[in-house]
Amino acid sequence: MENRDPIPDSGPIVRVLSIILGVALFGILATAVLDLDVEATGLTDTVMERIGESGVDHPPTAVLLNFRAYDTWLEVAVLLLAAWGALVLRQATRLPEQPAARSPGPVLDWLVRMLIPLAIVTGVYLLWRGTDAPGGAFQAGAVIGAALLLLRLSGYRSIGLFSAAWLRGSLLAGFAGFMAIATLLFITGWTFLEYPPAWAGLIIVIVELLITWSVAVSFVALFVAARPDDSATEPVGGER
Amino acid sequence: MSLVGIWVILIPLICGLAAFAVGGRSSRVIGLIGAGLTFLLSGLLVLHVWQSGVWIYQLGGWDVPLGISLRADGLSAFLIGMTGAVGLGISLYAVRYFEALTPGPSQDPSAALRTGSGRGEESGAGDSPEAERGGTEVWLPGASYWPLWMLLWASLNVLFLSNDIFNLYVGLELLTLASVALIILQREQAAIVAGLRYLLAAFLGSMAYLLGVALIYADAGVLDLGLLADAELTGTATQVAGGLMAVGLLLKAALFPLHFWLPAAHSSAPAPVSAALSALVVKGAFYLLIRLWFEVFESAGTVSVEQMIGGLGAVAIVVGSFQAIRQERLKLMIAYSTVAQVGYLFIMIPLAGSFGDPEASWRFEAWTGGLYHALSHGFAKASMFLAAGVLLSALGHDRVWHLAGSASRFPVIYLSFGIAGMSLMGLPPSAGFVGKWLMLRSAVESGQWWWVVILLVGGLLTAGYVAIVLSQALQHDVDEHTEPHPVPKLMTVMVFALAAMSLLLGLRAAEPLELLEIGAPFQTLMSVVED
Amino acid sequence: MSEFLIYGLAAAALFAICLHGIITRTHILRKILALNMMGSAVFLLLITIAERNQVDGVADPVPHAMVLTGIVVAVSATAFALALARRYHAQTGHTELHDEDGST
User: Fold this and answer.
1) pLDDT, position A131
2) How confident is the model over B206-253, as pLDDT tens digits?
C-alpha cells in the first residue's frame, strides 16, 4: 500500500475519550482479575482421569481432537470459510501463478532447495509429535504452507498448478474428511464425534493429516487471493 | 428421531460442501435439496421437542464438563423452526434470483449483473481476469452463493443448539465469516467496505465475548451452560464477564449505538443475503444474549443495567425509524427498519428482568413477547428485503421516490410489503401484534409504564416509513422512463408466502407460545401462576 | 503478588490498550493489528488460567485447547480482513474506512 505520511488519526476529543474509556476498562477488568481465586484446578483433574481413553497422550491434543472435537471440527470450517471468502473476493476458481518476472538468484535458489525439504520434514515431525508433545495439525500446516509460499515467492510453480477441482478438494479435505469419518461412525450407531476406543489413535492421525494439508493450502490461498489482481491494468479509484 | 438435532447441523453442512465441491451451475440443485431437507429436519426437531421435551446430547459420548453438549429446548426449537421456514423461502427465491445473474453462454457477464446499489454505482474495478485464464470454469455468483448460504444456515443451527459457551464463540465466528463472504458476493465497492466494517465490528465483539468466556472459566471452572446456570454465579468476575459478553453480543446484534455497521452491510448485499442477514443472523446474537442473560447471569443482573439496555432499545426504535423515514433507497430504509426492530427485541430485557417481584408472571410474558416479535420480524423482514430485490431486478433501481405508480405493475409485491409492514407495526391480527401485545401487558402489569409509551410510539413511526413506500407506489403518475424487466413468478410467490406467514402466525399463536414454555428459564414461575 | 495476578493484570492492560488503538487509529491495517493484539490479550489470560489450574505439574489443557482454537479462528478472520482491506485499497486507494456515499 502506498505511504501516506503522516497517517491521519482521530481528533483530540476522540483520543481523550478513548483514553478515559481504556482506563475505565482496565479498572473494571483489573477488579475482575483481582476477584478471581489465585488457586483453583479447573478441569485438569477431569481431563487427566480420562486421558487414557482418548487415544493420545498429550493433554491439549486429547482435548482438541477428542473431548472437544466439535470445537476443532467447526474451527476448520472457519478457516475454510476464510479461504473461500478470499476466493469469492477474487471471483476465481483457481489461483494465479506468481508473474515469472523475477527469477531466483543463485543464493535464493540454493536456500529454497535447502529449506523446502527441511520445512516438509519439520512439518511432518510436528504433526507426528502432536500426539505426545506440543505440536499438531495446525503447526504442521503452517510450516508446510510457508514452504509452499516460499516456492511461490521465489518464482517456482506451486499453487497455480492446482486445477480448480484440486484447489477446492485441498481446501475441503480437513473439514470434509473429519465430517465424513464422524458421519460414518454416527450412521453405524456411535455417538456423533465418538471414536471406537481401539481406533481412536488412528482416526486422530488421519484427521490431523487431512487438516494439515487443508491448513497449508488455506494459508497459501489466503495469501495469494489477498493480492488484488496481478494484472497491471487494475484501475485505482473505483469508477470505470 | 432423537438424533434429528445432529442431522439438522450435518445436512446443511454436507450439502454446502457438496455444492462447493461440484461448483458451477449444478451447485444450485444441491443447494435446493439441502434447503428442502434442512427445512424438513427443522420441522422434525420442533416436533420432537414438542412431543418429548428438552433434548440433550453429549457429543463424542463425553459427559460435561469434559465434553460439549447440545441442547434443544422450546426456545432453540422455536428459532430453528423459524430459520427453517424463512430459509426455505429465501432458498426458493434465490434459485431464480441468481439465475438472472448467471451470464448466458454468449452474453457479456457484466450486462446481466444488476447490483444492490442503484444506478451508476455498480461494480468497481476490473472483473476477474482469472475466469478467462482458468479456461474451464467461469466464476458464477450463484455457484458461491449456495455453499456459503448452506454453511450460514448450518452455523445458525450450531448456535441455537450448542450448550457450551466456548463452542458458541466458534459458532459465532462461523456465522460472521459466512455472512461477510455472502455480503461481498458481487464484489461491489460498497459491499466490500460494508463487509470489512462488519467483519471488524464482529471481530471486536467476538474478542469481548471471548474475554468474558475466559473470566467465567477462571471463576467457575466449567464451560457448559447448564452447569453454569446451576452454579448461580454472583461474583465480581462473573458480573464483568457478563458485561463483556453482553457488549460483544450487542455489537453483533446491532443495538444502538453499536448499529453503525448494519445499514450498509445489510443493504449492499444481494437480496437473498440481505434477507438472511436481517431476518436470521441478527437473531443469532440476540438469542445468545437472551440465553446467557436469563440463565447464566440471572443472579448477577441488576435492574439499572437492564433498564439501560431497554433504554438503548428505545433510542434504537426512535433513531432507527427516523433514519428509515429519511432514506431514499428502499433497501437502506429496510435496513434501518431492522435497527429499529432490534430495539424492540431488547425492550424485553428490562420487562423480563429483575424489576419488581421475581416470581411475577409478567416476566414470562415479556420473554415470550420479545421472542414472538423476533419471529414475526424474521418473516416480515425477509419478505421486505426479497420484495426490494424484486423491484431492484425489475426496475434496475430502488429509489423510493422513483417507485411512483409501480403498484399497478407489482400488485402482489406491494400487497406483501403492506402485510409485512403491518406485522412490523404490530397491528392485529399479525404475528407482530401478538409479540407487542404480550410486551405491552407485561409493561402494564409490572408498572413500567414508560415502555408502553415507547412501544406505541414505535408502532406509529413504523407506520410512517411503510406508508411512504406504499403511498409512492399507489400514485397515478407512472414513471414512464423505466420499462421493467420480467421477474420470475417464483420470486414474487416467495415474497408473498413469507409475508403471509407473518400474518398467519398471528392468527395461530397458541402452539408456538406453548412451545416456548418447554424448558424456559421461567417455567417454574409459570407453574406457580397456574396453580 | 502472585504470578497469576501479574499476568492477569497484564492481559487486562493489553486488552484496554488495544481498544484504544481500535478506536483512535484510522488506518485499517492498524485496526486489524489492534484486534489481533486484543486476541493475544485474551490468550494470555487463558494461558495464565491454565498455569493457575495446574495439578502435579500438568497445566489445565482446556484453556490451552481454547487458545489453539482461538488462534486459528483469529488467524482466519484476520487473513480474510486483510484480503478485504487490500481489495478495498485497490478499488479506492483509501487506507481508511469511508462511508459508501463518500466514495468520491
Assistant:
1) 74
2) 999 999 999 999 999 999 999 998 888 888 899 999 999 999 999 999
Using CA atoms, how far apart are residues B362 and B368, in angstroms rounded to an integer?
10
Neighbours of chain A (3+ CB pairs under 8 A): B, C
User: What residues of A are in contact with residue C29 (Cβ under 8 Å)?
Assistant: 1
Pair B340, B317: CB distance under 8 Å: yes
- DSSP assignment of B405-454: TGGGT-HHHHHHHHHHHHHHHT-TTSHHHHHHHHHHHHHHHHT-HHHHHH
Contact A160, A95 (CB under 8 A): yes
Interface test with A, best of B62, B203, B219, B258 (most A CBs within 10 A): B62
What ipTM is given for this predicted complex? 0.95
Q: Which amino acid is at B529?
A: V
Chain A with chain C: Cβ pairs closer than 8 A: 173
Grid coordinates representing B48 are 420432537
Strands of B40-113 (E only): list them.
Answer: 55-58, 69-72
Q: Which residues contact B120 (CB under 8 A, 6 or more apart)?
A: none
Report helix, strand or coil for A50: helix
DSSP class of residue B294 equals: I
Q: Which residues lie closer than 8 Å to B68 by C-beta, 6 or more apart? A: A68, A70, A71, B59, B60, B62, B162, B163, B164, B167, B224
Domain regions of chain B by residue span: 315-531
- Confidence at residue B111, expressed as pLDDT on a 0 to 100 scale: 36
Residue C39 distance to chain A (closest CA, Å) = 15
Q: pLDDT band at C99, cuts 50/70/90?
A: low
Low-confidence residues in chain B, pLDDT < 70? 1, 101-139, 477-482, 523-531
The DSSP symbol for B402 reads: G
Beta strands B55-58 and B69-72 are antiparallel
Q: Do A70 and B60 touch (CB under 8 A)?
A: yes
Residue C38: is it exposed, middle or buried by C-beta count within 10 angstroms (0-12/13-18/19+)? buried
CB B281 within 8 A of CB B261: no
Rounded to whole angstroms, the Cα distance separating A93 from B140 reads 9
Helix, strand or coil for residue B155? helix
d(CA A128, CA A148): 20
d(Cα B388, Cα B476) in Å, to the nearest integer?
A: 20
Please tell me the distance from the alpha carbon of residue A20 to that of residue A12, in angstroms, as a whole number: 12
Q: What is the mean pLDDT of chain A?
A: 83
> How many angstroms away from the CA of C27 is the closest CA of chain A?
7
With cut-offs at 50, 70 and 90, classify the pLDDT of residue C103: very low
**Would you call the peptide bond into B129 cis, given omega within 30 degrees of 0 as the criterion?**
no
Instruction: Identify the bridge partners of residue B319 per DSSP, sorted by sequence position.
Output: none
User: How far apart are alpha carbons B173 and B152 in whole angstroms?
Assistant: 11
In this prediction, residues A45-64 reach a mean pLDDT of 88
Residues 6+ positions from B530 with CB-CB distance below 8 Å: none
